[in-house]
Amino acid sequence: MTLTETLRDAIVATSDFICGYPLFVLLIGGGLFLFLYSGAVPIRRLGSSFRSLGTKSSGEGQISSFQALMSTISSTVGMGNIAGVAIAIFMGGPGAIFWMWVSAILGMATKFFEGTLAIMYRGHDEDGQIQGGPMYVITEGISKKLKPLSIFFCIFGLIGCLCVMQANQLVEAYTTVVTEPMGIETTFWMKFAFGILIGALVSLVVVGGISRISKIATKIVPTMVALYFLLVFVVIVMHFDRLPGVFVEIFSNAFNMKAGFGALAGVAIIGARRAMYVNEAGVGTASIMHGSSMNNEPVREGLIAMMGPAIDSGLVCTLTAIPILMSGVWHDFAGEGIKGLTIALSAYESLLPGIGKYLLLVIVTIFAFSTMFSYSYYGTKCTAYLFGNKNSKYYIYFYLLMLVVACIISLDTVVSIMDMAFALMAVPTMISLIVLSPKAKAEMKRYFGNN
User: Fold this and answer.
1) 228 CB contacts (<8 Å, ≥6 apart)?
2) 87 neighbors 235 (Cβ within 8 angstroms)
3) Is 294 left (phi over 0), alpha (psi -120 to 50) or beta?
4) Is 138 exposed, middle or buried (0-12, 13-18, 19+ CB in 10 A)?
5) For residues 146 and 136, what is the distance between their CA atoms, to the nearest angstrom?
6) More confident residue, 208 or 311
7) What would the pLDDT profile of 356-390 be if each residue is shown by its tens digit?
């Protein structure tokens, strides 16, 4: 075994441990606590969330609440909603989708607290500009003595926000659909060239900072979700007879005890793990974006923030799961290692022969780039917290370089690196949410007492 293979296996093994029961207890257990403690706010106050979007933002900040929501959705509605869902089905079967739904509901409660506390406990950078995120929630809300916990979050934020999965899977999509059918061999230099192109296109947006990113996100997110919904609607209409079987598979496999409790727990963990990557509830990235909102009303920002998991883990992931389960092609990849986007592309080619994979490729491209645009902002804010605003520009260069690197490394390594970094980011984030939840609840009582 080579040194590279040994290192890869070590990364995968470490990630599997951290993202197993520890992550499940932290995110699902923590999310369940916040759901119950809030009085089931995702269900009882969903109408208030939609009404909050129509309220004009006013106060310190750089972007509106709507722009903050669209920017967070542009980062979460990405390759994870397609490749991530395919991986969840491949690894855990149809039942994993049910646990993604559970994670979405609990994630809404978590995001509510993230958005609320992000406004309640904001800080200022060295230039006096207001900033948000778990690092400020911890130091401003709990204690400045816990700054090492904030630093811990930012260090892993530098890794977790590199968007390597999006770049990796986008290259897989184009080589599978375009170059290989043309007889062009997928070589190292081919992937490298794709990486250079991806990095160049992303740089056109990310160098403009949060203002340009939020403007692009506000325009692209509603369009890409609508286009994806339309594509899946066509698939459903053409294969409507298979739709009932999809939901039968999901529910029957979610609680299938034939293989024992361990198998059931494994399916639940896989679903929760992929949901974490999709909606990022409890990871802390949403706090950074919502903390930049021009909104002085914490609970209103929390209500807006909790719409994110409903859209990405609830709606968009379901839209992905339906065609994959309708086609049944995920069974064909057993024993071939982790396959993400290839499964989804094969499903669409099976359901819409001749054009399906090309239509999905268009959606995939939009999803991937929207995520790559927004993630750069999170990383720059973590860099600014650690090294100062003047040095945050260097993260952009590093970010673009890693997009190129991501295009030439294996998927299992990519998935493990991202999962592990996100899981470690979730530790300080969830600690801060649970510790400060009584203060957020007091703010809820004040707000809902007047609304």
Assistant:
1) 316, 319, 363, 367
2) no
3) beta
4) buried
5) 10
6) 311
7) 888 888 888 887 887 888 788 888 889 989 988 88
The helix or strand, by DSSP H or E, that contains position 404, with its residue range, turns out to be helix 392-406
Which residue in this structure is represented by tokens 């998991």?
Answer: 309
pLDDT class of 59 with cuts at 50, 70, 90: low
In which element (H, E) is residue 124 found?
strand 123-124
User: CA–CA separation, 118 vs 137, rounded Å?
Assistant: 6
Q: How far is CA 226 from CA 214, 219, 223, 229, 317, in A?
A: 19, 12, 5, 5, 14
Q: How far is 290 from 119, CA to CA, in rounded Å?
A: 7
Structure tokens at 320: 């992905």
**Beta pairing partners, 123:** 131
- Distance of alpha carbon 150 from alpha carbon 284, whole angstroms: 11
- Structural contact between residues 247 and 326, judged by C-beta atoms closer than 8 angstroms: no
Nearest CA-CA partner of 385 in 206, 162, 148, 202: 148
Given a contact cutoff of 8 angstroms between Cβ atoms, the answer to whether 107 and 317 are in contact is: no
- The residues that bridge with 150 in the sheet, in sequence order, are none
Bridge partners, residue 234, by sequence: none
Q: Which amino acid is at 247?
A: F
Beta-carbon count within 10 A of 226 CB: 10
